[in-house]
Write a structure and sequence with these properties.
With 403 residues, the protein is of the alpha/beta class. It folds into 2 domains: 12-261, Type I PLP-dependent aspartate aminotransferase-like (Major domain) (Aspartate Aminotransferase, domain 2, 3-Layer(aba) Sandwich); 264-400, Aspartate Aminotransferase, domain 1 (Alpha-Beta Complex). It has helices at residues 12-18, 44-52, 66-79, 90-101, 116-125, 141-147, 170-179, 192-195, 229-243, 249-258, 262-280, 300-306, 324-336, 367-372, 389-400; strands at residues 83-87, 107-111, 132-136, 152-158, 183-187, 205-209, 223-227, 286-290, 314-319, 342-343, 353-355, 379-383. It is globular.
Length: 403
C-alpha cells in the first residue's frame, strides 16, 4: 500500500497523472490492473500480522487491492485529504459513511436538495434503525444552525445540488458542525476536486460518485469517501471489511485512468455549459435557467469563490407550462425531439445527457418532497459533454421551437 514518493508541492494536474502506489517489479508506466480476489502470504506469521492489522499488506480484494489503493491515493491527493476509501457506487459511499458514523438515537441535518436516493436512504432507510434526520434549505445557513440538536452527529450537503445547482456555504456549515461536535460531509460529485476542494474549506468528509466525472466516459459505477486517516482506517475500513460495499479492481482502474484527464475535461465541459446556459436564457420558451456560472444565479458569487471561478457542467432549465401536466408534457416534448443528446439518468459523461428529473433521479420521491426540493414537472437537466456547442443548440431547438 506504499504510495509512490513524489516531490512536495505538486499541482493538482500533476497529481492527477502521477499519484499512485509504487510500480511493481516490472516497472509499468501505466498503473497495473490487479484482477485477483486474494493475495498469497509468505508465511503464517506474516498472514496473521496482516489479517490482524499489525502489518500493512494486501490480503483480500474486498478491502485491500493495489489497483484500488492507487485510485484511492490519487483521489485523496486531488482532494487534499489524508486518505480515501473506494466503494462500489456513490450511494454505497453514503451508506458506508452513515453506517460508520451513526447509531440509533443520532441525528443528521441534511440539505433537502440532495440527490433523491440520498434523501430516501437517510430519511427512510436509516430511520428504520433509529437515526433521526432533519432536512433544511440548502442555502439558508440559519436553517442549518436552527436544526442542530444535542444529538446531531453529521451535517450533509451536496454542492452544487442535483439538478437545481444550489450552492451552500461550505465554510459556514463547517463552523456550525464543529461547534456542535459534529462532522460535515460534502458531496463533491458535480464539481470534483478539479473545481472545488471542500476539505480546504473545512469539510471533514468528501463523498464521490466516481460513476460521474471521475470516470468521465460513462463506463463504470464507483464511489469513494475522502477523509482523515483516522476516519478511514478506524471508522470506514472496519465497516467495509464486514459489509463489503467493495469497488471491483477493474472499475477502480477505469476511474484511476479517468482521473488523469479530469482537469481538462471539467474546464472544457464547464465552458460549454456556461455558453449553453447563456443561450438558453434568450429562448422565449425557457422561463428560467439554473447554472452557478450565470450572474443571475442566487449564489453566483459564492459559487465562483468556492468553485475556482467555474460553474461546472450541469445546466437545468424550466420550459413553459402553467400546470404540472402541461409542464411534464412540454419537458417530455423537448427531450423526445432531440436526436443527438442521450436520454439517460447519468451525468458526467463526455456525451451530453438530457433528463426530466421529476420522473428519473427524483422519481421515487413524493410530489411534496419534489416540490420541497424545487423539482417541478417542467424542469429539464442537461449534463453538458464535449460535443460542439452549435450541435447541442440545434438539437435542443428541435423541441423548444416546436412547443
Amino acid at each position: 500500500m506504499t504510495a509512490k514518493k513524489l516531490p512536495e508541492g505538486l499541482h493538482i494536474d500533476t497529481l492527477a497523472v502521477r499519484a499512485a502506489v509504487d510500480k511493481s517489479q516490472y516497472g509499468e508506466n501505466s498503473e497495473a490492473l490487479f484482477l485477483t480476489s486474494s493475495f498469497t502470504q509468505p508465511d503464517s506469521e506474516t498472514a496473521a500480522r496482516r489479517f490482524s492489522g499489525q502489518e500493512d499488506g494486501y490480503i483480500y480484494s474486498r478491502f485491500t487491492n493495489p489497483t484500488n489503493a492507487s485510485m484511492e491515493q490519487r483521489l485523496a491527493a486531488l482532494e487534499g485529504a489524508e486518505a480515501c476509501i473506494s466503494t462500489s457506487s456513490g450511494m454505497s459511499a453514503v451508506l458506508l459513511m452513515c453506517m460508520g458514523l451513526l447509531k440509533a438515537g443520532d441525528h443528521v441535518v441534511c440539505s433537502q436538495s440532495v440527490f433523491g436516493s440520498t434523501l430516501k436512504l437517510i430519511g427512510s432507510e436509516f430511520a428504520k434503525f433509529g437515526v433521526q434526520s432533519t432536512f433544511v434549505s440548502q442555502t439558508e445557513v440559519a436553517a442549518w444552525q436552527a436544526a442542530v440538536q444535542p444529538n446531531t452527529r453529521l451535517l450533509f450537503a451536496e454542492t452544487p445540488t442535483n439538478p437545481l445547482t444550489e450552492v451552500c456555504d461550505i465554510r459556514a456549515l463547517a463552523g456550525i458542525a464543529h461547534n456542535a461536535g459534529a462532522l460535515l460531509a460534502v458531496d463533491n460529485c458535480f464539481c470534483t476536486p478539479a473545481l472545488q476542494r471542500p476539505i480546504s474549506l473545512g469539510a471533514d468528509i468528501v463523498v464521490h460518485s466516481g460513476t460521474k466525472y471521475l470516470d468521465g466516459q460513462g463506463r463504470v459505477v464507483a464511489g469513494a469517501l475522502c477523509a482523515s486517516d483516522q476516519l478511514v482506517k478506524d471508522v470506514f475500513i472496519p465497516v467495509m471489511r464486514s459489509a463489503g460495499m467493495s469497488l471491483s479492481p477493474f472499475n477502480a482502474w477505469v476511474v484511476l485512468k479517468g482521473l488523469e484527464t479530469l482537469g481538462i475535461r471539467m474546464q472544457a465541459q464547464s465552458a460549454r455549459a456556461l455558453a449553453l446556459a447563456e443561450w438558453l436564457q434568450t429562448h422565449p420558451k425557457v422561463t428560467r435557467v439554473y447554472y452557478p456560472g450565470l450572474s443571475s444565479h442566487p449564489q453566483h458569487a459564492l459559487a465562483m469563490a468556492q468553485q475556482s471561478g467555474l460553474g461546472g457542467a450541469v445546466v437545468s432549465f424550466d420550459v413553459v407550462g402553467q400546470t404540472p401536466d402541461i409542464g411534464r408534457r412540454n419537458a417530455f416534448h423537448v427531450i423526445d425531439q432531440t436526436e443527438l443528446l442521450s436520454v439517460t439518468a447519468n451525468l458526467g459523461d463526455v456525451k451530453t445527457i438530457i433528463t426530466q428529473p421529476a420522473s428519473t433521479s427524483h422519481g421515487r420521491l413524493s410530489e411534496a418532497q419534489r416540490l420541497a426540493a424545487g423539482i417541478r414537472q417542467n424542469l429539464i437537466r442537461v449534463a453538458v459533454g464535449l460535443e460542439h456547442l452549435d450541435d447541442l443548440k440545434a438539437d435542443l431547438l428541435r423541441g423548444l421551437d416546436t412547443l
